[in-house]
Design goal:
about 40% helix, 7 strands, seven-stranded mixed beta sheet, 10 helices, alpha/beta
Amino acid sequence: MSLDTIRAAHLPDLAGKRVLDLGCGEGRHALSTWLTQRAIVVGIDMSEADLATARSRQGDFPLAEDDGRALHFLKADGLRLPFDDASFDVVICSEVLEHIPDYQAMLREANRVLIDGGTLAVSVPRYWTEWICWRLSRGYRETPGGHIRIFRNATLRHAVESLGFRRYARHWAHALHSPYWWLRCLFWSSADDNPLVRAYHRMLVWDLMQQPKLTRGLERLLDPLLGKSIAMYFVKMASRSASAPNAGLSVQTPSTEATSHAA
């Protein structure tokens, strides 16, 4: 899916692995991982409406072959995850931390449920493109449930690495979306009816559905400059108490008890 901010190319082979999409929203990363990686995926969110949308989209992709993959959407609080320590091989947290007052607590929970040697993939809005949105529209930054902070890259990297992670990759994404959000902010009170905003939105939908080489190539070129989001990938370094190199790597579905508690 072109709207995926976290890219599979920067993740390890996920076949048979346990993946948590932390703050999954309507399920774009959980769904794409489930469809393309044969992984055991759990998406959690606090929004019942978003989870209902995610489940309905899952129903659009019935898989006839039982090849070990699984996908579950659960209502759960990212600050108190209903999973045991070291329950997941990979945690994805995309466009979530900018909404969370105590984002460090969410990172600590991600760290807790991740195995040693596991992967944490995080994305947030890029500082300068988000700064323009905040300056253009007071409504944008004061929308209930909206963005409550703008991350500097170094701040986020330090917050993750202070928990015992090492960053191994970074990229920007969605350059074509930055001008769209600037336009929406500029015409905030009438954006839905503004012809320029509507025309740009039609172009983005066309790009998503058709995947033309022209706009796909243009976005790749512009991402380092105009990318709306920054994505970082970290590996969790082994703790000193690990008793063996493969400790915690056995593949299991998160426990029934935890799933029941979160539902």
